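ARCHIVE CARD
SHELF: 3
SLOT: left
DATA:
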Amino acid sequence: KSAENCTENKTVKTKKRGTYRKRGSLPARMKKFKFVKLFCETCQIKFTSKIESDKHRETVHKEPWSFMCEVCGKMFVHRGSHYAHLRGHLPPTHACGDCDYRTPNKYDLAKHLLIHAGKTVDWVH
């Protein structure tokens, strides 16, 4: 089972000032909520939300090399890396006015122009 209802009298965190109470002592309006424990079926890590659980499954246990470049056949694990690679196959539309450098990416041209200006390029993504 990937999730089970928490019916035991365990301590739970409430939204009100982050206080902790026993489930049995919660106000009546909160007793209607079912507290669910989510955990990864593969590695048994527990999560507090379905979003965290889904993100973990997609990033950690996803089939490796899921994305393939249709142009050259190179494989990628992450969609973002695949997309960045595909942009490299586009025809160069941005050109340097000082040399014959051309690129399909405006960001790469801006970085290149800093070299002509004598500035160091230390970009962090």
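SLOT: right
DATA:
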Amino acid sequence: MLHLIYSVLGFIIAIAILVTIHEFGHFWVARRCGVKVLRFSVGFGKPIWKHTSKVDGTEYVLALIPLGGYVSMLGEADNTKDQINEDNRDQAYNEKSVYRRMAITLAGPAANFIFAIAAFWLLYIVGIPGIQPKVAAVLPDSYASKAGFKAGDSITEIDGEKAQTWNMVRFRILTALVRQESIQLKSESSNNTQKKHVLDFRKTKYFLGPGSRSPLYFTGFRVALPPTIAFVAPGMAAEKAGLQMGDTVVRLNDQPITTFHDMWPILYKNAGSVVDVKIRRNGKMITLKITPIKQDKVIGLIGVRPKKNSTVISEVVSGDPAHEAGMLVGDKIVKINGLEINVFRDIQRIVNKNAGVRLLVEVNRHGKTLGLNMTPKKYTQKTYIGGLIGVSAAQDTTKESYSILTALGVGAWKTWDMSTLTFQVFGKMITREASVKNVSGPFRIADVAGRAAERGLDWYIYILAVISLSLGVINLLPIPVLDGGHFMFQVAELVTGRPVSDSVKAVGMAIGLGLILMLMGLAFYNDFVWLLAKFGM
């Protein structure tokens, strides 16, 4: 319920802020160009509040549907042209030069980009939280492995810029994958050796869409986490041994531990046996004894344990995917994604193959068949340790921050980079190199805004910046109805020396409206499918 409240409020506030900024861009430049603004509306539909200025006669409106907004100018639309007379003709939009009309058109998207730059600037001054870019493991025969990365390396530079967080590295790798570029990196090994690396994606085909492997996973990197305990699962081996949140594991069976992932091979090798654990707690060294449980991968991936030689569930691990999906002890798994389940090995095979992919699991409960949606966790060392002893790692956090002047440049570059990347993703959707499922509607945007708001004001501002630049990009698409379409007509007028005829505009507007409705339909369809999966319907 709390997340729902955050999502609804986060979405409404985000749309109100960003639409106001976009329309204010049109409004401000129109006024500077001497155009009379008749109405400034945030939202569509029936007005719930309005006020007419006594100074300039502009009507300011807050409307019922918070999915957009508009600025109505004298002489812009046919229904305003009958208001033109000799006294106000010089204030009419259609009487202004093409250059001034182009400036008014571009002012809305420009305002969105300026807001994004300002937001990133502020965030980079304060510092954006992230995880230090230290490599925990490198997959064999991966891009990272071929580039010479080893476990324990700390990435220090990427394309000549200091690498401060994994988020920074992740975005740069994503950009290179989409643009099919190579990137230069530098690292420092655990023995302080400086190394240079090249990740060459020039011939790489990376399909961007739901279910795609993340850029870091695709490249072969595993993120290093410190051996500090952030969570202890109730009833698991760690709690029974006396481990507590905040403990730092120093040794296992006299073997030194420097990262959370160092524990995995030792715990796995000694599953079912007693392991000596030396920890640091409040500056004091303490030795505990822990017995990792024996388990198969399925327990770590979805959090269930079967009855012997059965598909009936005897244990559901709290907080794991099966528990989150609503699975109960005693449920019998009968189908997964329509495939019949006869033995527990069938579950293992499907779950292991579909880690990170949402599955429809049909269970028999008290004679009734129920459908549950769950996403198996990706099989990582962190997952396996959680299943073995019941702990998760704290993140070795840092902040990506810059001086005031540098932060402004970084904010501007970030806005440019993300905007051009968004244009390229649209292009790849047309060529089917990216999934159309990337198009999100209001429900998924609200979910993202809500999650960001829950994490804190800094993350909410970050999401506002991303949504703002996305609105700017979308409005620049050369589709009649959008700002980009109007600008296209104005460029044609500039080239030919005469305005585009009303009949051509009408056809263009009809086509543009059709395209926008199709895009909106796709966004709502994607949201609908997402909601069905989210709520197990």
